[in-house]
UniProtKB/TrEMBL annotation:
Record-linked Gene3D superfamilies: HPT domain
GO biological process, one term: phosphorelay signal transduction system
SUPFAM superfamilies: Histidine-containing phosphotransfer domain, HPT domain
Superkingdom of source: Bacteria
Lineage, broadest ranks: Bacteria, Pseudomonadati, Pseudomonadota, Betaproteobacteria, Rhodocyclales
Molecular-function GO term, any one: protein kinase activity
Signal peptide residue numbers: none
Alphabetized InterPro entries for the sequence: HPT_dom_sf, Sig_transdc_His_kin_Hpt_dom
The protein's name in its UniProt record: Hpt domain protein
Keywords annotated in UniProt: Phosphoprotein, Two-component regulatory system
Amino acid sequence: MPPHTPESTSHFDLAALRSDMSESRAAVRVVLETFAPWLTDTRQQLRAAIESAEAEPLGRVAHRLRGALAQLRAAPAVALVKKLEAHCKANPEACLSRDHALLAELDAELDALAAEVAAQLEALRR
C-alpha cells in the first residue's frame, strides 16, 4: 500500500509534512514515529487535566497539543484544540465537563489522526 495522497489524507497533510522535511521519506517516518507515542501520552495528560476540573492545566496541555498538531499539519484537530484553548482562557474558573461535545469531537478526531498516522507509518516502513 503506498502512502496516502493528499486527497485521501483527511486528518493531516502528508504532502505539506513531506515538503517541510525536504521530501525525505526517512525524516517523515522519524517525525511520525516520534509523534505517535507522544500523542498517546499527551492524550493521557489531557484526560487527567479534564478530571482535575481545572481550566488552567487543561489549557496548558491543549496549548502543547496544538503546537504539535500544527507541526504535523493536522488542521481539523488544530481547529478543535484552538476552541478548547479559547474556552479555557475565557473561562479560567470553569473547566469543561468530561461529556462536553467539544471534548468528544476532539477525542474522535485524535482517534482518527492516530489511526492515520499508524497507517502512514506502516506504509513508510515498507
